[in-house]
Design a protein that fits this description.
By secondary structure, the chain is an alpha/beta fold. The chain has 3 domains: 60-319, Spore Coat Polysaccharide Biosynthesis Protein SpsA, Chain A (Alpha-Beta Complex); 326-502 and 677-686, Rossmann fold (3-Layer(aba) Sandwich), CATH 3.40.50.2000; 518-671, Rossmann fold. 37% of the residues lie in helices and 17% in strands. Strands 1, 2, 3, 4, 5, 6, 7, 10, 11 and 12 form a 10-stranded mixed sheet that branches. Strands 15-14-13-16-17-18-19 form a 7-stranded parallel sheet, sandwiched between helices. It has a 6-stranded parallel sheet with strand order 22-21-20-23-24-25, with helices on both faces. Helix 20 links the parallel strand 23 (590-593) and strand 24 (615-617). Mean pLDDT is 91; it is low at 6-47.
């Protein structure tokens, strides 16, 4: 199970043998030139030994098996020292009987633990010996013909934090010329295997999302130390080397864990420096011998693997064969979970789809290149589709449309632009129109309040477009029963289901007496929020000051331009964008949502209630949220009544606790991850998508 997004995005997004089994089959070459891999900066000649910090209780043990090739070992260890890591680690070098002076050089390396083998027994034995003395919670096996890059180790370790079911994770391996060696491995039904992405660009989105894989190369892999030991380490039947890593991955999976590929852990691999590349000579000959042993041991598991000919037809399908239905979600931009509730809903919906076994692809049609939000999706196992030009988009639809099982078109503008392409190239897919909110309803209400005839005409046009899309879609998603009931009258033939906002239930984290102040939270690129905050500061706050002197209003949320200019005063504090909302929600006493128009359900209300903060809102704000006045929230529609509600809630601890408790239960019942999981599973099952 994935770790679902919190309400503020605090996710830190932040060789002994060649790794080619069987015949050399290359994947399709992507467009774009590869970037040359970084190299370790040359150190002064006098600095011959890398220096590591001593760790009494390291989080990670890095085991580097070596046999001769001192120049490679020296280069590898220097890269380890240069890259560093946020997590603590120790370096264990297992000298497998070297005769080239490696033992003497290693003995002089500060803080490197050296395990000297009495005789050369090969990679399998050396790795097991290193793991036997490892002190870290995790063990990383790293070939000595590698060069690690900045952030590699933290990326590997971060995988276990984001994916708690992960039992083994491997790195992205890059050739010295900058081309891709491996983005995880694929094992075929006959026991042969290949490196996915070999020869491609390391920057290709196909190779840059965390993915379930058949195996990860032992050139760089990580797993919990106790899990490795409980499985008996690398199976000695594969001595001296080859297929031990593949077999370990199958054993990890059989124990109930996932085997994942981490694209942000980039490691340069000088393939073949130790074992050579001729499969008929030396240690390389064990590649064929051990393949037969592996095929015999894993016969039952191999029955479900792709056939070699499948790879030639569709490498991408082979690479994702462990996932179920293929779901494409199209939206205008990447979800920005720390800015608006629609993004948080989208992000958690994507995670739920993946949790339900789907291979999820996300296409942000209006996004321009990489950013933090795109990388966060990739770290959660969502594949990004990048096709910035119309020609590229058409090529993608032509090549992949027929493989899709479900297409979700999110928001009216995206659906209008993508409907025809979806029906033409993904004709067999279930088409889901995700409204996010009813655009025509929001615009019509704003037009009525502002008495704007042009906006009213636009709302009528949007109404016709949205209703027609609903008729053409196989399923329409709305966020509230109110909207579903409305559409039962306006579009009676449409299949409309409710998938509402998705929030974690954090619970009440501070007492009534320890809190003070009011909160308005919102994305101020959204016009109803701008109208609400102006009504709040211009009409409600002047009345409130006379009754609750000294109580401050905190205005928090992303605001482009000068939309909040002029609102600040001694007791109105305009914070703007705040990355981590939890300290704010632990300290304020009451959240306000004085919305006068809009549509959908209100994430600002969900978010406050999920932290146990009671809310004062309007009938418009409460619409579709199953809120009962004075039980779940205070509901008032004019300035005087709104002030009365704030004052009563602010000073009445019993009322405050009642609303806090019922608000938490409201989120748990209607807007939690669990509620959304149940709903989404039912919806997809009804459409025969699962």
């Amino acid at each position: 199970m994935l770790r679902f997004a919190v309400d503020t995005a605090r996710l830190a997004v932040s060789g002994l043998r060649a790794r080619w089994h069987g015949k050399s089959t290359k994947s399709q070459s992507p467009t774009g030139s590869a970037e040359v891999a970084p190299t370790v900066a040359e150190q002064p000649a006098a600095v011959s030994h890398p220096v590591f910090r001593f760790e009494d209780a390291p989080q990670v043990s890095i085991v580097v098996p070596v046999y001769n090739h001192l120049d490679q070992t020296r280069h590898c260890l220097r890269s380890l020292a240069a890259a560093g890591a946020k997590c603590t680690f120790e370096v264990i070098v297992v000298d497998d009987g070297s005769t080239d002076g490696s033992a003497e050089w290693l003995a002089a390396c500060p803080q490197v633990r050296v395990q000297r083998m009495a005789e050369n027994r090969g990679f399998v034995s050396a790795c097991n010996a290193g793991a036997d003395i490892a002190r870290g919670r995790y063990v990383v096996f790293l070939n000595n013909d590698t060069e690690v890059t900045a952030g590699w180790l933290d990326a590997l370790m971060g995988t276990f934090a984001v994916h708690p079911d992960c039992g083994l994770v491997g790195a992205k391996l890059i050739y010295p010329d900058g081309s891709l060696q491996e983005a995880g491995g694929i094992v075929f039904a006959d026991g042969n295997a290949c490196n996915y992405g070999r020869g491609g660009s390391p920057q290709d989105p196909r190779y840059n999302f965390v993915r379930e894989v058949d195996y990860c190369s032992g050139a760089c892999m990580a797993l919990p130390t106790e899990l490795f030991r409980s499985l008996g380490g690398f199976d000695l039947r594969y001595m001296p080397a080859y297929y031990e890593d593949t077999d370990l991955a199958f054993s990890v999976r059989a124990a109930g864990y996932q085997v994942l590929y981490q694209p942000h852990a980039e490691v340069v691999h000088f393939e073949g420096k130790t074992a050579g590349t001729d499969a008929s000579l030396g240690i390389k000959r064990f590649q064929r011998i051990n393949r037969e042993k592996f095929a015999a041991k894993q016969q039952l598991a191999l029955a479900g693997q792709p056939k070699p000919e499948d790879f030639a037809h569709s490498p991408e399908h082979c690479a994702t064969h462990r996932r179920g239905q293929r779901v494409l979600v199209v939206d205008a931009d990447y979800p920005r979970v720390d800015r608006d509730s629609g993004s948080l809903r989208m992000f958690n919906m994507l995670l739920l789809l993946r949790e339900l076994g789907c291979h999820v692809q996300f296409w942000a049609t209006g996004a321009a290149g990489d950013d933090h939000d795109a990388r966060m999706l990739e770290q959660h196992g969502i594949e990004r589709i990048v096709a910035p030009s119309r020609a590229q988009a058409l090529r993608w639809w032509y090549a992949h449309g027929d493989s899709l099982d479900v297409v979700v078109l999110s928001r009216l503008p995206v659906a209008l632009n993508s409907l025809r392409l979806t029906r033409r190239y993904a004709a067999r897919a279930a088409l889901i129109f995700d409204t996010v909110d009813l655009h025509f309803l929001r615009i019509a209400r704003g037009a009525a309040m502002h008495r704007n005839s042009a906006e009213a005409a636009w709302a009528d046009e949007l109404r016709r477009s949205e209703l027609e899309l609903m008729r053409q879609a196989d399923l329409t998603l709305v966020v509230s029963e109110y909207e579903r009931n409305l559409l039962s009258e306006l579009a009676p033939t449409a299949d409309v289901q409710v998938l509402s906002n998705v929030h974690l239930v954090h619970g009440r984290q501070a007492s009534f007496v320890s809190r003070k102040g009011l909160l308005f939270l919102g994305n101020f690129e959204h016009e109803p929020n701008v109208d609400a905050v102006r009504w709040l500061t211009e009409e409600i706050m002047p009345r409130l000051r006379a009754r609750l002197a000294g109580v401050s209003l905190h205005i928090v949320g992303y605001a482009g331009g000068d939309v909040l200019a002029g609102l600040a005063s001694e007791d109105v504090l305009v914070h703007g964008y705040v990355a981590d909302l939890e300290p704010v929600l632990r300290s304020v006493k009451v959240a306000l949502a004085p919305l006068r128009y809009g549509a959908g359900v209100k994430g600002k209300i969900n978010m406050a209630m999920s932290h146990g903060v009671p809310v004062v809102t309007t009938s418009m704000g409460a619409e579709g949220m199953a809120l009962v006045d004075r039980r779940d929230a205070m509901i008032a529609d004019d300035s005087d009544a709104f002030v009365d509600a704030i004052v009563e809630l602010y000073v009445n601890e019993k009322l405050w606790l009642t609303l806090s408790d019922h608000g938490l239960e409201n989120v748990r019942q209607h807007f939690s991850v669990e509620a959304a999981r149940t709903t989404l599973k039912r919806i997809l099952a009804a459409k025969s998508c699962l």
